[in-house]
Amino acid sequence: MLYVDWPGVDDPWIGVNVDLVALQCFVCQVFHISMDQCGPPVVIGLQPEKQAGYARVYSLQIPPRNIIARLVAPAKPLFKTESEVAAMDFVRHHISLPVPVLYIYCSEATWDPIQLSQKKTLARDLVDVYDQLYRLKEDGCGGIYYGANPTMYDLASFSRSPRWALLSPESLRLLRSHCHHPIKDGYELGPIHDILLINYQLMVPTPSQTMPVFSSKEYVKLIAFNGLPPTRSYFDIPIREKCVELFQHIQTLYPKSPLFGEQSDASSFRFSHGNLREGNILIDPQSGEITGVIDWEAAAFRPSWATVLGVGWFEEDSQ
């Protein structure tokens, strides 16, 4: 949750993502009921994206009661919320206005329900996630795809998710022309989808501009120039060339490094999620165990150093 509390900000909800499933789970915990006994949160008034102000209001049906949940943007959360709750209690106890009864509230913008023991479990599981992914290695940097040969799908050892409909001849042609570096178990390396390439504001490079590469130096060029051939503007290219030169200097400074040295590519490239952040890791709120990892669109084989930090140092040219 991003703390937004400075003059000139029109939308106090910038950077805040409301998890309605988590809200429903929280209400169920407060009232000691199961999820099937509680209706989903229904927005009251305008849709959230059209609401102005600091609060968003939702209704949840717990027969025979109707519970109202009010979520407040994290601007001056402590004093604003504490004052509001005290004012409601004060009015309800001294005069007869119909002020709602509060079942529970929280004035901490960074409230964390996970206890230390649960965090230890989460940390252990997270290390295991990185460890298991790191064990997968190949001889090139690229995204992973099913082999385009349909006969391999009949192999008993080959398991794949069901596709809704058969690919068109054009789609099959595109896959075959861009994914032709075989790896283990019937998969192939193909175009890379690093987050920076997907989120680039000016142009998303075509698959032919993000084909697999087979050295760390070429991988850095691919990200720095936003594809090969580059999609960077003429004036932006010199800045990106400095990024490539920086990596080459690092290799010179650490020639025997297992991560950056000239021989590091000989130890092959490792598989990584590509966007392993808190929003993509699902955990059990009771135990702290990781129950799922989502958003695998940027998963690929990369240089060892990129499996942890990624290419965040390309996000700001001035760096």
UniProtKB/TrEMBL annotation:
Residues 266-300 form the Aminoglycoside phosphotransferase domain. PANTHER family: AMINOGLYCOSIDE PHOSPHOTRANSFERASE DOMAIN-CONTAINING PROTEIN (PTHR21310:SF15), AMINOGLYCOSIDE PHOSPHOTRANSFERASE-RELATED-RELATED (PTHR21310). Pfam families: APH (PF01636). InterPro entries: AGP_Transferase, Aminoglycoside_PTrfase, Kinase-like_dom_sf. This is Aminoglycoside phosphotransferase domain-containing protein. It comes from the Eukaryota. Gene3D superfamilies: 3.90.1200.10.
